[in-house]
Design goal:
Pnp Oxidase, Chain A, 9-stranded antiparallel sheet, 33% strand
Length: 247
């Protein structure tokens, strides 16, 4: 086809002198079970905990949902421009979802300057998503250390070898650093054999709102949002009010 012609999956529109591509993929109708007020858990923590458990079960039993605890975390840079990346949720209780990183990471500097933060967990096979918005607060050293010991030996070595988000000359340089630390602390299966790095860090989202999105047919989705109405944790019903949002 010549320039500007639409294929089975592409369409084009004219914008001034140039063509802009609009992706038209095969449409999938969202056949999720939805979410109504009657079935909503009384607190955002209980609702989120249930959905995370459903995603973990789907990953285990069906296998079409890898990394069910993955979440995209958004911060803002010095110019208040959003910056987003995918992390794994490593903590989750009534205080909020949490993740680990390094103090050398870009997100660490951004959080230090502006603690506003948002995250979303998306499970396409279930037609579900959860949006968390609030402020980042540090995870306590004891919790970080306990999680550190649960990591595989190789992942702990990698944390030492990588100054996260900083430039590196080559892949070979990164692998050389890994080899250096692996030789320093060989795997012996002993607790504490690899010490916690000084730059090891983690943050928890202290939520001001938690939205639950459930895909429905004809794009008439359900969106129920818990909004903070008082002091309390994610598991304090009195601290939240619920509102339905249009899709």
């Amino acid at each position: 086809m010549g320039p500007g012609w639409a294929s089975a999956t592409d369409a084009y529109v004219m914008e001034g002198p140039a063509y802009a591509r609009i992706m038209v993929t095969e449409r999938i109708d969202y056949t999720g079970v939805g979410l109504d007020e009657a079935s909503l858990a009384p607190t955002p923590y209980l609702q989120a905990r249930g959905w995370v458990a459903d995603a973990e079960a789907r990953a285990r039993d069906v296998g079409d949902l890898p990394e069910p605890t993955a979440m995209a975390v958004a911060t803002v840079d010095a110019d208040l421009v959003p910056d987003v990346r995918v992390v794994l949720m490593r903590f989750f209780d009534e205080r909020g979802p949490g993740f680990v990183s390094s103090t050398t990471a870009t997100k660490a500097a951004q959080i230090a300057a502006h603690d506003g933060i948002a995250a979303v967990m998306t499970w396409v096979p279930l037609f579900r998503a959860i949006r968390f918005r609030g402020h980042a607060e540090p995870v306590a050293a004891g919790e970080l250390a306990a999680y550190w010991e649960s990591r595989p030996w190789g992942a702990r070595i990698s944390a030492w070898a990588s100054a996260q988000s900083q430039p590196v000359a080559s892949r070979a340089a990164l692998e050389s650093a890994y080899a250096t630390y692996a030789a320093r602390w060989p795997e012996r299966g002993i607790r504490g054999e690899v010490p916690v790095p000084d730059d090891w860090a983690g943050w928890r989202i202290r939520c001001d709102s938690v939205e639950f999105w459930a895909g429905r047919v004809d794009r008439l989705h359900d969106r129920l949002r818990f909004v903070r109405a008082g002091v309390g944790t994610l598991d304090d019903a009195g601290a939240w009010r619920v509102e339905r949002l249009q899709p």
